[in-house]
Write a structure and sequence with these properties.
The chain is mostly beta strands. It is built from one helix and eight strands, in the order H-E-E-E-E-E-E-E-E. Strands 1-2-3-4-5-6-7-8 form an eight-stranded antiparallel beta barrel. Strand 2 and strand 3 form a beta hairpin.
Length: 141
């Protein structure tokens, strides 16, 4: 936990501000586009492609999944967007956390915050800098 917090501070996330969608590289919501990050512990890469039709394709290790998502149109007072996703299909292969997802239609909610000055985001299990992963970097608008 201390290591995660230290990494966040080093990356400058302590000075995160609410993202300005007009300044984003992609017109519309700042979540749209392709995002990538590599888990340090396993050196495994995950790629998320959020589309305007409300679907997201996720490649995590050998797992490939397709999901639907909803994201709040505006961040909360601390800059976090609420993102709810439901997995529609998966190949069931091992993901970057070395687990096999299998078929699941369970919805889950995370909280995303964007850097204002760089195309980066953090994903947290609640709207606070606790239990987060990333940063994910935009690879395509």
């Amino acid at each position: 936990m201390k290591r995660c917090l230290s990494a966040l501070l080093l990356l400058g996330f302590e000075s995160l501000a609410i993202a300005n969608p007009a300044a984003a590289r992609h017109a519309g919501h700042p979540i749209l586009g392709t995002w990538q990050w590599t888990r340090e512990k396993t050196n495994c890469t995950e790629v998320y492609e959020y589309r305007t039709d409300g679907t997201v394709s996720i490649v995590s290790g050998a797992e490939v999944s397709q999901s639907s998502f909803r994201v709040s149109s505006h961040p909360d007072q601390n800059g976090f967007y609420e993102l709810t996703s439901t997995t529609g299909s998966t190949n069931g292969a091992r993901d970057c956390s070395d687990s096999s997802a299998g078929v699941r239609a369970k919805a889950y909610t995370v909280y995303v915050i964007f850097r204002q000055d760089e195309p980066m985001q953090l994903v947290c299990d609640r709207p606070a800098f606790v239990h987060c992963y990333g940063p994910l970097r935009r690879v395509e608008p």
